[in-house]
Amino acid sequence: MDIKTRLKNYGLWISVIALVPMVCKAFGLTILPDNYNEIATGILGILVLLGILNNPTTETNGFKDDKGSGNKKGKPIRKYNLKEDKVDKRDYYFKNHILSKSVQLPKSIDLREKMPPIYDQGALGSCTANAGCANKSYFINNRLQFSRLFLYYKERLIEGTIYQDSGASIRDICIALTKYGVCEEDFFPYDTTKFTQMPSLLADKNALRYTINSYHRITSVEEVKQALANLLPVLLGINVYESFEKVGKNGIVPMPGNFESVLGGHAVLLVGYVDGATTINNTPQKLCDFIRKKTSSQGYFILRNSWGTDFGDKGYMYLPYEVFEKIKNDIWVIFQ
């Protein structure tokens, strides 16, 4: 057992011993030797040392060291700092776009095969950039990987918070991709310790090759399905409830309980849907209904997350329409 562990285990006893001389002096007791002040001072010095040694250790790969003050079980550190979009009358709406009415909806759509590998954002609040880069990579048939760190920097440049891990909004993704584009991963690799670093001029130049044309706000389940039926992924902001973190390997997102707290906001990418399903990811419907605390289902969306492949169904999740209505926030679709 090292010194740090010993001091932590006996910290309470040290505190009591340090207080005894002070109590004796206060009541005029003479049971302690004349040098009790020196003894107390020495013990208090040990307490100070304990405080120094007990500082949290550094974080790596989105986890706190198991010797620090973080979760002893290595629970991932999640940041929920998605910002809500501000109202802007200039927004384009997908319902006014010709594509919103041009396709008869099929029973299901699944774009996962054309998606890049699942990302892991780690402890950085870069969910918006992870969703945006996956969307952009899909547009070029996954031929390239794009820099999430570059896009996250540009989002925060728009927000005026480049030196803070402050998160961004879904609209910030769209504005950044329109104005700056996004560079290839090799120009600005994903290193969470460098999130405040300004991208190079070469990265900026490369990014201008990969901009988008426009982006449109979505306001309903039907519009989401129309976009997906037109083979367009959909950027989704959600309110994260406590149960969202407990999604199992079946990937089913449960209906939040009546007394659950909202932990914050998170950006994801919708990549498919299934209408009138009798199972969700091969899970029997009755069990799905129990999990969601519902008695019926109209279908579900397929959701791409950015917490690595160990979370959910290899990084994907299944969002029943009624749960979608409960947790949805801002919704956007971008056009290449």
UniProtKB/TrEMBL annotation:
Q: Where are the transmembrane segments?
A: 12-33, 39-57
Looking up CDD domains in the UniProt record yields:
Peptidase_C1 (cd02619)
- This protein's UniProt keywords: Membrane, Transmembrane, Transmembrane helix
* An example molecular function term from Gene Ontology annotations: cysteine-type peptidase activity
Q: Which domain of life is it from?
A: Bacteria
Cross-referenced InterPro entries, in alphabetical order?
Papain-like_cys_pep_sf (IPR038765), Peptidase_C1A (IPR013128), Peptidase_C1A_C (IPR000668)
Q: Name one GO biological process term.
A: proteolysis
Q: Where is the Peptidase C1A papain C-terminal domain?
A: 105-324
The record's section on SMART domains has: Pept_C1
Q: Which family does it belong to?
A: Belongs to the peptidase C1 family.
Write the protein's name.
Peptidase C1A papain C-terminal domain-containing protein
Provenance organism = Clostridium fungisolvens
